[in-house]
Amino acid sequence: MPKPVLLITRKLPEAIEARAAQDFDARLNTKDDPWFRSGAEIAKRANEAKAEGVLIAAGDPMNAEAIAALPASVKIITTFSVGYDHIDVKAAKARGITVTNTPDVLSFATAETAMTLMLMAARRAGEGERLVRAGKWEGWAPTQLMGVTLEKKKLGILGMGRIGRELAQMARGFSMEIHYRDINKLPPELELGAVYHDDDDKFLSTIDVISMHVPGGDATRKWLNAERLAKMKKGSLVVNSGRGGSVDDEALIAALASGHIRAAGLDVYDGEPVVNPGYFKLENVALLPHLGSATIETRDAMGRRALDNLFALLVEGKEPPHAVK
Ligand code: DGY
């Protein structure tokens, strides 16, 4: 039996590429050539290869046009990410194409990134690092680069899914009080004493730090806008390691410049890899390049999960373990 043809859009960890080459007739992008940025280009290569599966990553634009242009041979689109807002799932389903993702295995690493950003924002770590690297540090001083402590602060988690809950656990270690806003209240065994809010205004006016963990897409587009930022206490912190589109960049930049928001930490951006240049003028924002899940262990686990999904459908003819419903 010939192996199923699998088009892979990105350079992947070595062990994952090796397993892909063993289980599939894998068309790898070993040099990470940036053709993955265009949905039309991905579809073109899928046609040339007569691919049965396409393994993409966060940001590869599988919109309705790209899906319409895929060859009839494609049965599955697997994304090397938990988020799938870059895929038009409805259009895929309409063509009978299964969409799968890689949930769970990246929750801890992504929560670690949120915690890192929270600490960087609270303790002015980016500013301090820039000072030392610029050779401008003149030694310890009682009033130098004073930030705020996280101890006993109220952390507001927007979106209490798997990543939000991991962050809540970490933040408890910093003696933070956990509040969360979500569509549904969690059962007590998952809530672990966190305070549920069913109202945006009460949530925003209660917390000292917001950490955003909502999926991208129209429902959350620019959720954190000028009006909602104004409802937060003066001196609050903003952290986003979810999706860039859920923050109104211009509104956050204005709130950081005025000092209403003390500091922010961002890992994701609306329209990334382009970053609103307004952020570059500000000292009080820590900017990371979407490395939420970027640990060696996590990326290997994500790769294994992605290949398990493909193997189930294309080789075993079974329902993949992580099909997007
Ligand atoms: C995801 O998995 O959705 C991340 O944003 C990519 O690391």
UniProtKB/TrEMBL annotation:
It holds the Pfam family 2-Hacid_dh_C. Belongs to the D-isomer specific 2-hydroxyacid dehydrogenase family. It comes from the Bacteria. The keyword Oxidoreductase applies. SUPFAM superfamilies: Formate/glycerate dehydrogenase catalytic domain-like, NAD(P)-binding Rossmann-fold domains. The keyword Ligase does not apply. CDD domains: GDH (cd05301). Residues 115-292 form the D-isomer specific 2-hydroxyacid dehydrogenase NAD-binding domain. The lineage of its organism: Bacteria, Pseudomonadati, Pseudomonadota, Alphaproteobacteria, Acetobacterales. This is D-glycerate dehydrogenase. Keywords: Oxidoreductase. Residues 27-324 form the D-isomer specific 2-hydroxyacid dehydrogenase catalytic domain.
